[in-house]
Write a structure and sequence with these properties.
Blueprint (H helix, E strand, L loop, with lengths): L2 H43 L24 H30 L1 E6 L6 E6 L18 H12 L8 H15 L3 H8 L9 H31 L13 H12 L1 H4 L3 H28 L7 H30 L9 H12 L8 H33 L1
Antiparallel strand pairs: 1-2
Length: 383
């Protein structure tokens, strides 16, 4: 019994000693975790030799370890094109309205007084100040909303979405596959000529498949200023039927050649420029493969595409929107434009074209990159 107090005191002493050691270990562990966390922050955020570290915090989904398949790129491009059209369609409509205007005249084909598309500055129609209905991008949009309602901004949207699902899927979604097909085996880098050839190929194939949807979209956008009784088409399906019945199947492919030229140029301006800018930013470690990098590359691609494609775009829009027999071919449309307005007429509507192409490219490429990564992440869950 006499040894019990000493035994109890020994236990208490050992317990206090153990608690002290545990507290010191806990404090030491906490300090170690803090140092590790700070080191990780420095590694991920702080610049390395004046450049951003590749392990910087990502904005958006990270690049997948397994690359997306051709089918994923095909579907993602079509969906991204539709998203971009939904966001920028009013700007596209304003561009079409600024590139062409309408007057009331008697059509030889339809036999009634209807709104017949005429080209601004057309020799047969005297050009007056009052004939210019739209002035500037904001002025065009406000005039359309005031006189036709807000729905007019999305006139032809159904045909536009149909166009993107077939058009963007081919020219954008198949670009990487065609580029790899043209790249020689064993080549470390893809050359400029190979990129340009791939862009021209996918652009031409896409036009051949999606031209009817483009014709219907442009006509709907340009005819929105007419009254309901004067409009030629009651809907998208009716437009396809009416054009095929009155102008033949060839009418659905009106302006195919200038559209092929336009989209070959735009494809090179968009895809090749985006491809080169993105590679340059990543190689120089100025940015990581995330949304800010895609935004910068897409904005530059939109500007380059507008500069090189605006002349062809003006001719394409006016020729596709012309009444039957108004022009013999796209070349006669180009000559009539140059005779009446000069070279400056080729860049009519440049500002709305840039606003539309620039914003469209930003929305499309950012969506395209994220949709691809989403599909790669979702593939194991769907399997």
């Amino acid at each position: 019994m006499e040894g019990q107090p000493w035994s109890w005191a020994g236990k208490q002493g050992r317990s206090q000693l153990e608690r002290g050691v545990s507290a010191r270990q806990l404090l030491s562990g906490a300090r170690g975790m803090e140092q590790s966390w700070l080191q990780g922050v420095r590694t991920k955020v702080l610049p390395v030799h004046g450049k951003l570290s590749p392990s910087a915090t990502m904005v958006g989904l990270k690049p997948p370890e397994v690359p997306p398949t051709a089918a994923m790129k095909f579907v993602s491009a079509g969906m991204a094109g539709c998203i971009a059209d939904l966001c920028t369609f009013p700007l596209d409509t304003a561009k079409v309205r600024l590139q062409s205007w309408w007057h009331l005249g008697r059509s030889r084909r339809w036999g009634d007084t209807v709104g017949t598309p005429q080209i601004q500055g057309e020799v047969r129609i005297p050009r007056t100040i009052s004939s210019v209905e739209y002035r500037g991008v904001l002025g065009t949009l406000s005039t359309m909303v005031r006189t036709e309602g807000a729905r007019s901004l999305y006139s032809g949207l159904a045909a536009g979405l149909q166009r993107q699902m077939s058009f963007a899927s081919i020219r954008i979604g198949l670009y990487d596959s065609v580029k790899q097909l043209y790249t020689p085996k064993g080549a470390e880098n893809t050359g400029m000529a190979t990129r340009l050839l791939a862009g021209c190929t996918t652009g031409a194939v896409a036009v051949a498949c999606a031209q009817p949807t483009d014709v219907v979209k442009v006509r709907f956008q340009a005819s929105g200023a007419l009254s309901d009784s004067a409009r030629r088409y009651s809907g998208t399906v009716d437009a396809y039927r009416t054009i095929a019945r009155e102008e033949g199947v060839r009418g659905l492919w009106r302006g195919t050649l200038p559209n092929i030229a336009r989209n070959a140029i735009i494809n090179c301006g968009e895809l090749v420029t985006y491809d080169l800018l993105k590679d340059a930013l990543l190689r120089a470690q100025l940015m990581t493969d995330n949304i800010p990098c895609h935004f910068v590359a897409a904005f530059g691609a939109g500007f380059c595409a507008t500069v090189v494609a605006s002349p062809v775009d003006v001719v394409k829009t006016r020729y596709m929107n012309a009444s039957p027999g108004q022009y013999r071919n796209a070349l006669s449309c180009l000559l009539a434009l140059l005779m009446q307005e000069g070279p400056a007429g080729l860049y009519k509507g440049f500002v709305p074209s840039f606003l539309r192409l620039g914003s469209w490219n930003v929305v499309m490429f950012v969506s395209y990159e994220q949709l691809q990564r989403t599909m790669v992440l979702a593939r194991p869950a769907l399997a």
